Amino acid sequence: MSSLRWKIAALVAVASCAVALVVGLLVHRSTFDRALDLGESRAEVALLSAMDPHQRTGPGSDAGVVETAEIPPGLARLLPYTEEVSTWYDDRDPGIPWMWAAQRSGGRTFAVKIDMGPDMRSLRALDRHIVMASLAALAVVVPAAALAAELPNRRLRRVARTARRIAAGDLEARTTGRDHGGNAEAAAVLAGRRGDEISEISATVDLMADSLRDRLLSERRFTADVAHELRTPLMGLVTAAGLLPESEATELVRDRVRVLRVLVEDLLEISRLDAGVERADLARVPLGDVVEESAARTGLPARITVTGAATAETDPRRLDRIISNLLVNAHRHGRAPVEITVEGTSIVVRDHGSGFPDAVLACGPQRFLTGAAERGHGHGLGLTIALGQAGVIGASLAFANAPDGGAVATLRLPDLRRLPDTGTAG
Fold first, then answer.
1. Rounded to a whole number, what is the largest CA-CA distance in the chain?
2. How far is residue 159's CA from residue 146's CA, in Å, rounded to a whole number?
3. Which residues cross the membrane (predicted)?
């Protein structure tokens, strides 16, 4: 966007140069033609003055007579075919141009030449003045065009910043700084009642953000409502499944009820994360111990490597949730061995399967979307919850694929050295 101003300035400069060139050529040509016309008139008058003594004194006079060899070849070729006065501009020597006039009379050739040097020097001076005036005009017009382009350029940059904020998840971002009740203003702009094209783009972005926010809030409310509504009958199912007599069919029912219960709890957790009501309960904890305890609670095998004795200011319950979700995801969608590496305030969980699908690498995890059939089946909620909980504790969670194969999830907690000493311990 920052180059748009200079593109406009360059376009104005090119247009100004083109206008100056056209005007300069027209002025130059017009002045040159006028100088030639004046030179021809002066040469004809001089020729008549030179021939007048000859006509008065008779053929014996040599007044005005020149040698044919001195006449320019072009003019000499014209004389045998006409008895009228012929003129010729002789610029064979650019430093000393001449205007010739010649006429044949009584078998003799009369010719004169007029010095055109002063006229051509005046023309060159005019050309220089035109060039200097054009450069002076460019020195004023180009900066003025750049300044004039700065206002729309600034407005376009604001629209681009707003669009980037919306793409990053800030659905409250607006180009005009208005609130949700400002739809009427944007609608008026789009209806053509006010504003220009940039205003129309801004209004469109604002209306798009409003629509996107409303749709997303509606989806979140629906998810939360569904999860809450399912919770009551789910408790009845859990209780009823516990009363069934032991059998293979009973175990299958209980397993499906457990899966449904986990799904409902995940949906409720996501709805809380979406609502932004979750708050971290920070404590200073040893990362190696927390990771080992989290992995042990899942009951899944993992090769854990701890470098040093790093501690972090974080919420141990939420950190446990993130680690367990990443470990379960690695076993469910990847292949063994699963490795967990703790180094400093970074925790890396890696499997040796087919890696994360391109959709996860490009856009992050999406709920109810596993992304690739080869990574198994699931609801796509585990990574979504892990990413949301990482945001609550102020950590970053990145997803990548190892060069030799396998998915790599890297959790980076805030560096304890950059945080104030709270005096807490965990």
1. 153
2. 20
3. 6-27, 130-149
pLDDT reported for residue 348: 92
Query: Could you tell me the pTM of the whole model?
Result: 0.53
Class of domain 171-277: mainly alpha
Question: What pLDDT shows up at residue 209?
Answer: 83
Cα of 96 vs its chain's centroid, Å: 59
Residue in the block written with tokens 């509504």: 229
User: How far out from the chain centre does Cα 319 lie?
Assistant: 37
For 164, the enclosing helix (H) or strand (E) is: helix 117-167
Q: Can you say whether residue 290 is alpha, beta or left, with left for phi > 0 and alpha for psi between -120 and 50 degrees?
A: alpha
- E strands, 92-243, are 98-105, 108-115
CATH class held by domain 283-418: alpha beta
For the sheet containing 396-401, what is the strand order? Answer: 303-307, 339-343, 346-350, 407-412, 396-401
Amino acid type, 385: I
206-240 b/e with 16+ CB inside 10 Å = b?
A: bbebbeebeeeeeeeeebbeebeebeeebeebeee
DSSP lists the bridge partners of residue 305 as 341
Which token pair is 133?
């005036």
What residue segments make up the domains of the chain, in order of their start? 4-138, 171-277, 283-418
How many angstroms separate the CA atoms of 287 and 239, rounded?
A: 38
Whether the bond into 337 is cis, omega within 30 of 0: yes
- Amino acid occupying residue 312: A
Distance CA 112, CA 99 (A): 8
Specify the DSSP element, H or E, that contains 202: helix 197-243
Paired residues of 90 in beta bridges? 98
114 torsion bin: left (phi>0), alpha (psi -120 to 50), beta (else): beta
- Helix, strand, coil shares, percent, the chain, to 5: 60, 15, 25
User: What are 396's strand-pairing partners?
Assistant: 412
Which positions of the chain have pLDDT values less than 70?
1-2, 53-69, 177-195, 367-380, 416-426
Instruction: State the pLDDT at residue 6.
Output: 79
* Beta-strand relationship, 339-343 and 346-350: antiparallel
Structure tokens at 320: 């446990």
User: Token pair for residue 298?
Assistant: 């899942």
Instruction: State both tokens at 93.
Output: 């020597």
